[in-house]
Design brief:
With about 475 residues, the chain is an alpha+beta fold. It contains twelve helices and 21 strands. The protein is globular and about 70 Å long.
């Protein structure tokens, strides 16, 4: 096996929309029957479909005999980002017939809960779709309607194709559908989904590229808006009324650092006085609980725009938890991030109330608030593998998929997203060394120094298996390994 420096990884390219043969349809349908009956090993099913079936059976407990998608529950309010996405995708959906030659299907736009907002198509197709309740204000999330183009794409980073008996619910076998989720460029959470469905006919091969282009164009507009919010966070940082010696950082709604002064930079392991306006340039703080803290602050501030609070976070640099004063930053009614005054419970001049602290990494005197999993679930072809964390040498992100390099081979993790896996393994000796890599420090055998101080961690010297360390993560890696 070659090292990460010379490897190109990733899942296989998306399957085309071509029709499945009668033999393949029967084989997949038989596999679904065995799986719904409790079998854990089935053959001839694509990994993304099998993982969706696993969620439908074990996590969501969706009835495979469901005849129609249920009516959607009343949803909460949508942010400005949601409305921008809905408008963009609605325009794409309305133009689908002109953009994709020869297509005769139903095009839908749904929100992040899988709630269909609008449908486009011929009268004939809309009537057929109504039979499955593929219509406005129906619920097509995986947790309500099983494996399908809309719900399953919300669980994945790439466009998803679901054909015939690949659907979890037997009644939907007449449909072939493809969907793509548009995600928040800051938090990477889904905002909406664009989907095309055809009845008993294959999708055109042009559909998946069309979906990808529509999603990419929409996310490009979101990145422009996010850069503007980064500028606003930096301005709020400059205007903050705190003592000049206070360690202060401005973070976005994902907990990434837009700007930090020298005092805060030392504590959270980021560059000092270096603004990062664009989401892709923002700094990941070396504080494990920061993403969860940012999420909770956002939720509280959405409920009360005058709220500010205090909490404690564990700082690995100090080996202990310190107090943090939190003040949300808003752009109109939208929460865009927060100012954090570290090491001070009164860094804000507003009345403050406590916010429940996020999970923290255990230090010498800080207990872990929840146990870490004893096993990591992974997929090898059509079988589930339970890994002891000690068997994993490193994890590598490919969009929202995570590939595990382990003593049992290279496996696809059941967990979606490297951030989620990092939170699960934070107390098992794993360290984020790159935006795409999480390494088991206990399996590092050699450290190679590259050009201009770059680092590579060798986890298996027999096969030159190395993992790159990014410049922003190099200081924390050197400190942790005692270099």
């Amino acid at each position: 096996m070659n090292g990460a420096k010379g490897r190109t990884n990733g899942a296989p390219p998306a399957t085309s929309g071509a029709a499945l043969s009668e033999e393949n349809l029967k084989r997949i349908a038989a596999a679904r029957e065995r799986f719904t009956a409790g079998a854990d090993t089935v053959h001839g099913v694509r990994p993304e479909i099998l993982m969706s079936w696993y969620r439908c059976r074990s996590e969501y407990e969706v009835d495979p005999d469901l005849e129609r998608a249920p009516v959607a529950a009343e949803g909460g309010t949508h942010s400005m980002e949601h409305h921008v996405v809905f408008a963009e995708l609605g325009g794409s959906a309305a133009c689908a017939a002109a953009d994709v030659d020869g297509v005769d299907g139903v095009v839908t736009v749904a929100d992040s809960d899988g709630r269909v907002l609008a449908c486009w198509g011929s009268r004939r197709m809309l009537r057929l779709a109504a039979g499955s309740n593929l219509a406005a204000w129906s619920a097509w999330a995986e947790r309500t309607s099983g494996t399908n183009g809309m719900g399953t794409s919300l669980e994945n980073q790439r466009p998803v194709l679901v054909r015939g008996p690949e659907h979890w619910c037997r009644t939907f076998d007449g449909w072939t559908c493809a969907g793509v989720a548009v995600r928040d460029v800051v938090t990477h959470e889904p905002l909406a989904v664009l989907n095309m469905s055809c009845w008993r006919t294959p999708l055109s091969d042009a559909v998946l590229p069309w979906l990808s282009r529509a999603a990419a164009a929409t996310e490009a507009k979101l990145r422009q808006r996010a850069r503007h919010t980064g500028t606003l966070l930096a301005a709020a940082f400059a205007d903050a009324r705190v003592p000049c010696a206070t360690p202060l950082a401005a973070v976005d709604t994902a907990g990434k650092v837009v700007l930090a002064n020298s005092g805060a930079a030392v504590l959270i392991g980021t560059p000092a006085d270096t603004p990062a306006y664009a989401p892709a340039q923002r700094w990941a703080p070396q504080v494990p609980g920061m993403p969860e803290l940012a999420r909770r602050v956002t939720e509280r501030a959405q409920q009360d725009r005058c709220w500010s609070g205090t909490t404690r976070v564990h700082v690995p640099f100090l080996g202990t938890a310190i107090p943090v004063a939190v003040r949300p930053v808003l752009n109109g009614t939208q929460v865009i991030g927060a100012l954090l005054a570290l090491g001070s419970a009164d860094g804000s001049d507003a009345d403050s109330s406590d916010v429940e602290p996020p999970p923290v990494r255990p230090g010498p005197s800080v207990p872990c608030p929840r146990p870490s999993p004893h096993r990591v679930v992974a997929l090898r072809e059509d079988r589930w593998v339970l890994l002891d964390p000690r068997e994993i040498r490193f994890a590598e992100a490919d969009h929202n998929n995570v590939w595990l390099t382990s003593d049992q081979g290279r496996l696809l993790a059941a967990a979606r997203g490297l951030d989620r896996l990092e939170q699960e393994l934070v107390d098992k000796g794993f360290l984020r060394v790159h935006r795409r890599f999480l390494v088991n420090l206990g399996r590092v055998r050699e450290i190679e120094q590259g050009f201009k101080g770059t680092l590579f961690l060798a986890t298996d010297t027999r096969f030159r298996e190395t993992v790159p360390v990014s410049r922003r993560h190099a200081p924390s890696v050197r400190q942790t390994l005692g270099l």
